[in-house]
């Protein structure tokens, strides 16, 4: 579904990602882990083509289509969804109004149904978009938009940071349900090793200093937990 | 001449003493790390402070004006101060009056500041005179704090012009105006910016009583294609009498879309809750009001050196303002 | 981001068509003969002519001293190249009906009472029956001069005297038509009143005059809309609006101004010089709401004189400029009575090469005890070539009053645009969502019928300015 070939990127002439290769197939869940400042969020922004995140070299291919030069709204229309680490706030626009803008002919009943699924306080729908929402409410709002847009590739940037266990459970239950019932793939960017309790990844990648230094099965998360990321810096290990 | 010499004081805690008596100049300095070049010609004074070691040094400079039996309408003096790199300068202006004076003083001060210098300029008019001051500031990658304190002057007309000549300039203006009786103040501040990453912060607090008249004008100009500039302008005013006239004009001219810029004006009464709280702690009304106003003013004179110099004067003046004789 | 804004779409001003219709137009130029002729054409009583001539005499004396203090640049107006009157011959012409239908204000509208002003003449005032039952007078001002001379004599020029400023003097001497509204004691006007101004003729300057009087415990909501055809030459529009809110009354005056703004090179467009002022009696309230998107030059300061105790003045404004448009707008709040309060909220958005200025005056007089003012003026800049100015002026002479003034320059954060983009919304839509949010508090205060219209208007403006 998503294929990244020898990707080099920069922000304001500062090189960030170096030679990234990634292949996410249909119906796969991948996890991307790494220390702070390793370039995890940069990768998600590069895929969704945020301005100033320049591609120096390499290709990003989505469903056999090169998306290097597309604008981010077109990429979204192709079916790539990014859940932001820090969702923005917009004053003066209610949440409901914003959601109605996302998709034509979306029905109020459907929004209500999804909101109930996510256990969103229904009053929030009539409040201004994310304004004064708690961290958990903002993240739930992201998932609500996901359900409305029905994307094919979901990128979750730190979806679990700063949330309580109940909220994490709700979010991942819905994600798992969505994954089973729709043809889609998921890329999860996280710090949290506990994530294995909620979702079952096909592959785990470790990113450090702009390079993917290791890719492996689910169990390497245990090694991260035990020894930290330093463990993977030397190439002599094989698991 | 004898009289003059007996009155003139030289402050030893200042590195440089510049004394201007009517139009006669005397200067004394005692710091070996700097070199000073002084030219004095016909009411025009040029001072260049040079840093020899290329290390950061702290200097205190006192500009001391003495007036003795002067009766003129415009007594004009031009001072040009050039300051070298890496100098932390504390610049203080002082006025002394002797004999019978009737003058409208007109001083022009030009400050040219080079890179990595930090200047604190205390403009405290401590005598009851009429003044028209023009201050021009041209700076490069340095920081300048101006403490504009108007307490005693009768009639003052200030003009401050600030222009940046490079990126990363920092500029703060803190104004404290405590006026009563028939004091008059007109203040105009122009800030002109053509470069990036500059900060400009202007805060003015005024407490006005009796028949005072105040006109404050601040203009902020941010040029085209500049980036990451921060400009902040704030006026707080407390009016204690119905005969006060106050006019504030905070103007903004913005040509750049990459800027953080706000200005605010507050005109209001004192917060009765705080006064009530202080009263309940056993302070009397005068004392609690004094404390309250001082706490507001303190925001603008946080700097230790400055605070030490003018703390008592300000407290005294607030007291004078608050006690109304009927 | 820059790239997005630098692209232009072709100008689309929806109302830029011209109606070919027979009319009587006075020759170009201004002199006392022309003024007599205007008065004559309208069958005015002699006292009105005297007022006109007095104003003209004053204007003649200051003719070369037209005001230059505004932050606007435009070619000197040649007052002798303007025709001061153009009235159509047949008011029942079908073309007029068609024109107004095309403009989206059909003549058989049943919810709102509309006074249609076409060039210098009022065509028709609708729904008069409902109003008559309640004793409300709503008609064109020329009709009012003949029918209700006592009211006109008492109030015309009482808020904006002829010697108030350059354009009020000009307006008083040559004004042709406008609306008059009188709400009697204790009557709350059940429907929206509205006037629609249309400039059709190419040579004419429109000089409208509006007078609204609301008596004790009455209230009214009034809306003004304006359009003009596309022309390469500048056209002058100088209006005077006077509001009189007597005791315990309420006036809400909304404007949706959409005059032809000129093309993208700044050629043509209406020069809009308007003096609007209201006076508040005891316990009364006046609120101005304006959405300014048109005109190449706008000069407009709707003001309130808060004379009565406990009176309230409000001003809310959205001004959107693009291409080479210039707007200098704001408000004056003059507190005279006790316990008066005022509110100013101004939101300016400037795109492309345009200039957007806020100019305001808040004055608290000596005896205005416990008065309050809150001012908020925000500007938003789109693209790096536009500019924003704020020139507030705050004067206080009272110790018990509170003034708060805040203003910020905000930018559209790229982060927000990217977020909306990521959700599949294109730049245009993303911008319109953000701008809509930015102007939310003002749009919501408009009369319900016009909220959607104003929103659409803003969205079209955004479309045109980004492309």
Q: Which secondary-structure class do the elements of chain A indicate?
A: alpha/beta
Largest interface (C-beta under 8 Å): B-C, 34 and 33 residues
Task: Please trace the helix and strand order of chain B, writing H or E for each element.
Answer: HEEEEEEEEEEEEEEEEEEEHHH
* Strand proportion of chain A: 25-35%
What is the N-to-C succession of helices and strands of chain A?
Answer: EEEEHEEHEHHHEHEEEH
Catalogue the unreliable spans of chain B.
none
Low-confidence stretches of chain A: none
Shape of chain A: globular
Number of domains of chain B: 2
- Gyration radius of chain B, in Å: 20 Å
Question: Strand tally of chain B, please?
Answer: 19
What does this structure look like?
The complex is a heterotrimer of chains A (239), B (326) and C (467). By secondary structure, chain A is of the alpha/beta class. Chain A contains 7 helices and 11 strands. Chain A has one domain (2-92, 145-232): Rossmann fold (3-Layer(aba) Sandwich), CATH 3.40.50.300. Chain B contains 4 helices and 19 strands. In chain B, 38% of the residues are buried. In chain B, β1 and β2 form a beta hairpin. Chain C is of the alpha/beta class and 467 residues long. Chain C has helices at 2-6, 32-41, 46-61, 94-102, 128-134, 141-147, 149-155, 166-174, 414-422, 427-438, 440-443, 448-466, and strands at residues 23-25, 86-88, 112-118, 121-125, 137-140, 179-183, 192-198, 209-214, 219-227, 234-245, 250-257, 269-280, 285-292, 297-300, 303-306, 312-321, 326-329, 332-335, 341-350, 355-364, 372-381, 387-396, 402-411. Chain C has a 10-stranded mixed beta sheet, with helices on one face. In chain C, strands 12-14-17-20-18-15 form a 6-stranded parallel β-barrel. Chain C has a two-stranded antiparallel ribbon with strand order 1-2. Chain C is globular, with a radius of gyration of 22 Å. The two termini of chain C are 12 Å apart. The chains are: A alpha/beta (239), B mainly beta (326), C alpha/beta (467).
Task: Please specify the SSE layout and strand pairing.
The complex is a heterotrimer of chains A (239), B (326) and C (467).
Chain A: E1 2-11, E2 14-15, E3 20-24, E4 29-33, H1 40-47, E5 53-62, E6 65-66, H2 72-78, E7 80-83, H3 95-102, H4 108-117, H5 135-149, E8 153-157, H6 165-181, E9 185-189, E10 203-208, E11 211-216, H7 220-227
Parallel strand pairs in A: 4-9, 4-10, 7-8, 8-9
Antiparallel strand pairs in A: 1-2, 1-3, 1-5, 5-6, 10-11
Helix pairs in contact in A: 5-6
Chain B: H1 2-7, E1 16-21, E2 24-29, E3 34-41, E4 44-51, E5 57-68, E6 71-83, E7 87-98, E8 102-113, E9 118-125, E10 130-139, E11 143-150, E12 155-164, E13 170-179, E14 184-193, E15 199-208, E16 213-222, E17 229-239, E18 245-254, E19 259-268, H2 272-280, H3 285-298, H4 304-322
Parallel strand pairs in B: 1-5, 4-6, 5-7, 6-8, 7-9, 8-10, 9-11, 10-12, 11-13, 12-14, 13-15, 14-16, 15-17, 16-18, 17-19
Antiparallel strand pairs in B: 1-2, 3-4
Helix pairs in contact in B: 2-3, 3-4
Chain C: H1 2-6, E1 23-25, H2 32-41, H3 46-61, E2 86-88, H4 94-102, E3 112-118, E4 121-125, H5 128-134, E5 137-140, H6 141-147, H7 149-155, H8 166-174, E6 179-183, E7 192-198, E8 209-214, E9 219-227, E10 234-245, E11 250-257, E12 269-280, E13 285-292, E14 297-300, E15 303-306, E16 312-321, E17 326-329, E18 332-335, E19 341-350, E20 355-364, E21 372-381, E22 387-396, E23 402-411, H9 414-422, H10 427-438, H11 440-443, H12 448-466
Parallel strand pairs in C: 3-7, 6-8, 7-9, 8-10, 9-11, 10-12, 11-13, 12-14, 12-15, 13-16, 14-17, 15-18, 16-19, 17-20, 18-20, 19-21, 20-22, 21-23
Antiparallel strand pairs in C: 1-2, 3-4, 5-6
């Amino acid at each position: 579904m998503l294929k990244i070939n020898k990707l080099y990127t920069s922000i304001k002439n500062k090189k960030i990602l170096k030679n990234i290769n990634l292949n996410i197939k249909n119906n796969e869940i991948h996890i991307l882990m790494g220390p702070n400042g390793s370039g995890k969020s940069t990768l998600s922004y590069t895929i969704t083509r945020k301005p100033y995140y320049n591609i120096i070299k390499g290709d990003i291919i989505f469903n056999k289509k090169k998306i290097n030069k597309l604008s981010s709204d077109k990429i979204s229309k192709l079916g790539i969804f990014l859940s932001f680490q820090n969702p923005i706030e917009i004053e003066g626009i209610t949440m409901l109004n914003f959601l109605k803008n996302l998709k034509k002919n979306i029905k109020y009943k459907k929004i209500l149904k999804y909101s109930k699924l996510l256990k969103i306080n229904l009053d929030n729908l009539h409040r201004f978009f994310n304004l004064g929402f708690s961290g958990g409410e903002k993240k739930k709002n992201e998932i609500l938009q996901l359900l409305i847009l029905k994307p094919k590739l979901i990128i979750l940037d730190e979806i679990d940071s700063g949330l309580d266990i109940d909220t994490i459970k709700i979010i991942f239950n819905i994600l798992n349900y969505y994954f089973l019932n729709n043809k889609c793939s998921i890329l999860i960017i996280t710090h949290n090793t506990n994530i294995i309790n909620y979702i079952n990844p096909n592959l785990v990648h470790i990113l450090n200093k702009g390079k993917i230094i290791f890719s492996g099965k689910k169990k390497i998360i245990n090694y991260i937990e035990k020894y930290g990321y330093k463990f993977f810096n030397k190439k002599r290990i094989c698991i | 001449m004898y009289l003059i010499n007996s009155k003139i004081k030289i402050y030893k805690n200042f590195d440089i003493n510049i004394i201007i008596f009517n139009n006669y100049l005397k200067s004394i300095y005692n710091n070996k790390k700097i070199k000073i070049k002084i030219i004095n010609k016909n009411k025009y004074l040029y001072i260049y402070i040079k840093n020899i070691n290329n290390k950061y040094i702290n200097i205190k400079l006192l500009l001391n004006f003495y007036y003795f039996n002067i009766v003129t309408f415009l007594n004009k003096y031009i001072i040009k101060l050039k300051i070298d790199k890496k100098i932390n300068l504390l610049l203080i202006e002082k006025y002394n009056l002797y004999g019978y004076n009737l003058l409208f003083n007109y001083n022009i001060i030009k400050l040219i500041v080079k890179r990595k210098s930090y200047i604190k300029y205390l403009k405290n008019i401590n005598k009851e005179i009429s003044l028209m001051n023009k201050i021009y500031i041209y700076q490069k990658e340095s920081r300048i704090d101006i403490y504009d304190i108007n307490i005693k002057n009768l009639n003052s007309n200030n003009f401050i012009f600030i222009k940046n000549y490079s990126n990363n300039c920092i500029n703060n203006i803190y104004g404290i105006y405590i006026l009563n009786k028939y004091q008059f103040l007109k203040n105009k501040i122009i800030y002109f910016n053509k470069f990036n990453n500059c900060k400009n912060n202007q805060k003015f607090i005024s407490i006005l009583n009796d028949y005072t008249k105040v006109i404050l004008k601040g203009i902020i100009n941010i040029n085209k294609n500049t980036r990451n500039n921060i400009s902040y302008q704030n006026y707080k005013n407390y009016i204690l009498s119905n005969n006060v006239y106050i006019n504030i004009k905070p103007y903004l001219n913005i040509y750049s879309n990459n800027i953080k810029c706000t200005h605010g004006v507050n005109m209001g009464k004192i917060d009765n809750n705080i006064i009530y709280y202080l009263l309940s702690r056993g302070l009397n009304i005068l004392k609690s009001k004094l404390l309250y106003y001082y706490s507001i003013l303190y925001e603008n004179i946080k700097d230790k050196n400055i605070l030490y110099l003018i703390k008592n004067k300000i407290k005294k003046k607030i007291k004078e303002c608050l006690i109304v004789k009927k | 981001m820059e790239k997005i804004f630098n692209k232009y779409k072709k100008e689309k001003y929806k109302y830029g068509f011209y109606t070919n219709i027979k009319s009587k137009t006075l020759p170009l130029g201004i002199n006392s003969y022309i003024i007599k002729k205007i008065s004559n054409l309208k069958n005015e009583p002699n006292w009105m002519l005297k007022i006109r001539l007095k104003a003209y005499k004053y204007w003649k004396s200051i003719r070369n001293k037209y005001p230059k203090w505004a932050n606007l640049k435009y070619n000197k107006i040649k007052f002798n190249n303007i025709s001061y009157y153009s009235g159509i011959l047949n008011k029942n012409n079908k073309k007029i009906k068609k024109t107004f239908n095309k403009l989206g204000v059909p003549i058989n509208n049943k919810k709102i009472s509309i006074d249609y002003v076409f060039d210098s003449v009022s065509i028709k005032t609708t729904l008069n029956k409902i109003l008559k039952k309640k004793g409300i007078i709503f008609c064109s001002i020329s009709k009012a001069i003949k029918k209700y001379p006592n009211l006109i004599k008492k109030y015309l020029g009482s808020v904006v005297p002829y010697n108030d400023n350059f354009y009020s003097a000009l307006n008083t001497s040559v004004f042709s038509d406008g609306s008059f509204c009188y709400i009697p004691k204790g009557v709350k006007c059940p429907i929206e009143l509205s006037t629609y101004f249309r400039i059709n003729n190419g040579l004419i300057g429109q000089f409208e005059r509006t007078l609204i009087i609301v008596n004790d415990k009455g209230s009214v909501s009034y809306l003004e809309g304006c359009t003009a055809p596309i022309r390469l030459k500048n056209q002058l529009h100088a209006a005077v609006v006077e509001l009189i809110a007597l005791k315990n009354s309420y006036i809400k005056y909304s404007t949706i101004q959409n005059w032809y703004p000129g093309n993208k090179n700044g050629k043509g467009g209406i020069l809009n010089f308007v003096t609007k002022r209201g006076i508040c009696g005891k316990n009364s309230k006046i609120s101005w709401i304006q959405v300014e998107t048109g005109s190449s030059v706008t000069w407009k300061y709707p003001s309130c004189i808060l004379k009565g105790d406990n009176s309230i003045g409000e001003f809310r404004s959205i001004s959107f400029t693009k291409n080479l448009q210039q707007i200098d707008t704001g408000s004056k709040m003059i507190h005279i009575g006790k316990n008066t309060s005022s509110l100013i909220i101004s939101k300016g958005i400037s795109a492309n090469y345009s200039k957007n200025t806020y100019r305001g005056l808040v004055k608290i007089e000596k005896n205005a005890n416990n008065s309050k003012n809150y001012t908020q003026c925000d500007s938003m800049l789109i693209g790096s070539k536009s500019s924003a100015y704020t020139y507030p002026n705050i004067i206080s002479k009272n110790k018990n009053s509170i003034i708060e003034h805040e203003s910020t320059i905000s930018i559209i954060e790229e982060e927000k645009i990217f977020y909306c983009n990521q959700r599949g919304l294109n730049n245009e839509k993303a911008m319109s969502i953000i701008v809509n949010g930015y102007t939310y508090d003002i749009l919501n205060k408009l009369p319900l019928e016009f909220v959607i219209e104003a929103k659409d208007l803003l969205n079209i403006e955004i479309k045109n300015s980004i492309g």
